[in-house]
Amino acid sequence: MTIQQVQATIVLNVQYVREVREVDMVRKPVSEVRVDLAETLNRVQYKGERIILHRRGKDVAALVPVEDLELLEELEDRIDLEAALEALKETRKKGTIPWKEVKKKLGL
Question: Which H or E run contains 8?
């Protein structure tokens, strides 16, 4: 799988999540969330809402359901795996440099 294919898969996964869950993001000031944190967490956990927290008009954090975080981590893992596979291909094509030679070039 190429990086472009992985990126296309990410786009499809994100579109799927948006369509199936019909999730809208809500922006709330940190001060408001601080007053009623339990209610805000319940909205995230039980209703699947995504809440962007902002301070002085600037977005500073997001509260998302654990399922969304797990999806994000899975997508990041796929991207990392693809990058590692591409690096291995390049290593096989170009070869490697012995560690002793690297140390010598760096003066170690």
Answer: helix 3-21
